Amino acid sequence: MIISTLKNILYERDLTAYRVATETNSSRTFIQNLISNKFQQLNVEYLNNLCKYLNLNFTDFLYYYPFNIDITLDNNIFKVIVNYDNDEFLEMSLYVTLLSENKIPVVNIKDSDFENWRSFYEDHENILLELTLESIEEIYRKKQNYNLEPFIFLTRVSLLTDVNL
Protein backbone atom coordinates (compact mmCIF):
# COMPACT_ATOMS: atom_id res chain seq x y z
CA MET A 1 0.00 0.00 0.00
CA ILE A 2 1.44 3.36 -1.00
CA ILE A 3 0.18 6.40 0.88
CA SER A 4 0.56 10.04 -0.06
CA THR A 5 0.86 12.77 2.57
CA LEU A 6 0.69 15.54 -0.02
CA LYS A 7 -2.53 16.79 1.58
CA ASN A 8 -0.66 17.61 4.80
CA ILE A 9 2.26 19.23 2.98
CA LEU A 10 -0.02 21.50 0.97
CA TYR A 11 -1.94 22.41 4.13
CA GLU A 12 1.27 23.27 6.00
CA ARG A 13 2.42 25.47 3.11
CA ASP A 14 -1.01 27.03 2.58
CA LEU A 15 -1.16 25.79 -1.01
CA THR A 16 -4.23 24.69 -2.97
CA ALA A 17 -4.42 21.80 -5.41
CA TYR A 18 -5.44 24.23 -8.15
CA ARG A 19 -2.43 26.48 -7.56
CA VAL A 20 0.02 23.56 -7.45
CA ALA A 21 -1.43 22.01 -10.60
CA THR A 22 -1.28 25.33 -12.44
CA GLU A 23 2.23 26.25 -11.33
CA THR A 24 3.67 22.78 -12.02
CA ASN A 25 1.85 22.40 -15.32
CA SER A 26 0.31 19.19 -13.97
CA SER A 27 -3.22 17.92 -14.22
CA ARG A 28 -5.55 18.87 -11.37
CA THR A 29 -6.79 15.28 -11.38
CA PHE A 30 -3.25 14.03 -10.75
CA ILE A 31 -2.78 16.41 -7.80
CA GLN A 32 -6.27 15.73 -6.42
CA ASN A 33 -5.75 11.96 -6.64
CA LEU A 34 -2.46 12.27 -4.73
CA ILE A 35 -4.17 14.40 -2.08
CA SER A 36 -7.07 11.96 -1.66
CA ASN A 37 -4.93 8.80 -2.03
CA LYS A 38 -7.04 7.56 -4.92
CA PHE A 39 -4.26 7.20 -7.46
CA GLN A 40 -3.86 4.02 -9.47
CA GLN A 41 -0.71 5.04 -11.29
CA LEU A 42 1.66 7.97 -11.16
CA ASN A 43 2.70 10.18 -14.04
CA VAL A 44 6.48 10.44 -13.67
CA GLU A 45 6.67 13.82 -15.42
CA TYR A 46 4.04 15.34 -13.11
CA LEU A 47 5.70 13.74 -10.08
CA ASN A 48 9.05 15.20 -11.10
CA ASN A 49 7.50 18.67 -11.55
CA LEU A 50 5.81 18.39 -8.16
CA CYS A 51 9.04 17.39 -6.41
CA LYS A 52 10.89 20.34 -7.96
CA TYR A 53 8.09 22.75 -7.08
CA LEU A 54 7.91 21.60 -3.45
CA ASN A 55 11.69 21.15 -3.20
CA LEU A 56 11.14 17.63 -1.88
CA ASN A 57 12.04 14.09 -2.79
CA PHE A 58 9.04 11.89 -3.61
CA THR A 59 9.91 9.76 -0.56
CA ASP A 60 9.06 12.81 1.56
CA PHE A 61 5.37 12.40 0.72
CA LEU A 62 4.92 8.87 -0.65
CA TYR A 63 5.21 6.02 1.86
CA TYR A 64 5.08 2.26 1.42
CA TYR A 65 3.31 0.05 3.98
CA PRO A 66 3.50 -3.75 3.74
CA PHE A 67 -0.28 -4.21 3.85
CA ASN A 68 -3.58 -3.17 2.31
CA ILE A 69 -6.66 -2.07 4.20
CA ASP A 70 -10.01 -3.40 2.93
CA ILE A 71 -13.30 -2.19 4.37
CA THR A 72 -16.77 -3.71 4.08
CA LEU A 73 -20.12 -2.74 5.59
CA ASP A 74 -22.86 -5.14 6.66
CA ASN A 75 -25.75 -4.18 8.97
CA ASN A 76 -23.97 -1.03 10.16
CA ILE A 77 -20.91 -3.05 11.15
CA PHE A 78 -17.76 -2.10 9.32
CA LYS A 79 -15.15 -4.79 8.95
CA VAL A 80 -11.67 -3.39 8.54
CA ILE A 81 -9.32 -6.07 7.30
CA VAL A 82 -5.60 -5.39 7.21
CA ASN A 83 -4.01 -7.80 4.73
CA TYR A 84 -0.26 -7.99 5.22
CA ASP A 85 2.05 -8.84 2.34
CA ASN A 86 3.10 -12.03 4.15
CA ASP A 87 -0.51 -13.34 4.01
CA GLU A 88 -1.26 -12.55 7.65
CA PHE A 89 -4.27 -10.41 8.39
CA LEU A 90 -5.91 -8.47 11.18
CA GLU A 91 -9.66 -7.97 11.29
CA MET A 92 -11.30 -5.22 13.30
CA SER A 93 -14.95 -4.29 13.67
CA LEU A 94 -16.42 -0.84 13.95
CA TYR A 95 -20.08 -0.35 14.83
CA VAL A 96 -21.97 2.62 13.44
CA THR A 97 -25.32 3.66 14.86
CA LEU A 98 -27.60 6.40 13.62
CA LEU A 99 -29.14 8.76 16.17
CA SER A 100 -32.77 9.26 15.21
CA GLU A 101 -33.08 12.79 16.61
CA ASN A 102 -30.57 14.59 14.43
CA LYS A 103 -29.47 11.86 11.99
CA ILE A 104 -25.83 12.07 13.06
CA PRO A 105 -24.08 8.69 12.79
CA VAL A 106 -22.07 7.76 15.85
CA VAL A 107 -19.10 5.45 15.76
CA ASN A 108 -18.90 3.12 18.72
CA ILE A 109 -15.36 1.81 18.74
CA LYS A 110 -15.00 1.09 22.45
CA ASP A 111 -17.60 -1.67 22.29
CA SER A 112 -15.96 -3.29 19.31
CA ASP A 113 -12.32 -4.21 18.82
CA PHE A 114 -10.84 -1.21 20.56
CA GLU A 115 -7.58 -2.89 21.58
CA ASN A 116 -6.97 -4.08 18.02
CA TRP A 117 -7.60 -0.57 16.74
CA ARG A 118 -5.35 0.95 19.37
CA SER A 119 -2.43 -1.42 18.84
CA PHE A 120 -2.58 -1.24 15.03
CA TYR A 121 -2.97 2.51 14.64
CA GLU A 122 -0.51 3.41 17.37
CA ASP A 123 2.17 1.57 15.41
CA HIS A 124 1.60 3.63 12.26
CA GLU A 125 1.26 7.17 10.97
CA ASN A 126 -1.89 9.22 11.58
CA ILE A 127 -2.47 9.15 7.83
CA LEU A 128 -3.53 5.48 8.01
CA LEU A 129 -6.23 6.21 10.55
CA GLU A 130 -7.37 9.19 8.49
CA LEU A 131 -7.54 7.08 5.33
CA THR A 132 -9.44 4.32 7.09
CA LEU A 133 -11.96 6.82 8.43
CA GLU A 134 -12.29 8.54 5.06
CA SER A 135 -13.01 5.17 3.43
CA ILE A 136 -15.58 4.34 6.09
CA GLU A 137 -17.19 7.73 5.63
CA GLU A 138 -17.35 7.30 1.86
CA ILE A 139 -18.93 3.85 2.11
CA TYR A 140 -21.44 5.01 4.72
CA ARG A 141 -22.26 8.19 2.79
CA LYS A 142 -23.06 6.19 -0.35
CA LYS A 143 -25.17 3.70 1.58
CA GLN A 144 -27.13 6.31 3.54
CA ASN A 145 -27.10 8.89 0.74
CA TYR A 146 -26.66 12.05 2.78
CA ASN A 147 -24.02 14.46 4.00
CA LEU A 148 -21.76 13.14 6.74
CA GLU A 149 -19.80 16.23 7.75
CA PRO A 150 -20.86 15.91 11.44
CA PHE A 151 -19.96 12.21 11.30
CA ILE A 152 -16.54 13.00 9.87
CA PHE A 153 -15.80 15.53 12.58
CA LEU A 154 -17.15 13.47 15.49
CA THR A 155 -15.43 10.30 14.32
CA ARG A 156 -12.03 11.89 13.91
CA VAL A 157 -12.17 13.69 17.22
CA SER A 158 -13.32 10.65 19.20
CA LEU A 159 -10.95 8.18 17.55
CA LEU A 160 -7.92 10.42 17.70
CA THR A 161 -8.67 11.14 21.34
CA ASP A 162 -9.24 7.48 22.20
CA VAL A 163 -6.27 6.12 20.30
CA ASN A 164 -3.91 8.91 21.40
CA LEU A 165 -2.06 9.14 18.12
Automatic annotation (TrEMBL):
<dbReference type="GO" id="GO:0003677">
    <property type="term" value="F:DNA binding"/>
</dbReference>
<protein>
    <submittedName>
        <fullName>Helix-turn-helix domain</fullName>
    </submittedName>
</protein>
<dbReference type="InterPro" id="IPR001387">
    <property type="entry name" value="Cro/C1-type_HTH"/>
</dbReference>
<dbReference type="Pfam" id="PF13443">
    <property type="entry name" value="HTH_26"/>
</dbReference>
<dbReference type="InterPro" id="IPR010982">
    <property type="entry name" value="Lambda_DNA-bd_dom_sf"/>
</dbReference>
<feature type="domain" description="HTH cro/C1-type">
    <location>
        <begin position="6"/>
        <end position="61"/>
    </location>
</feature>
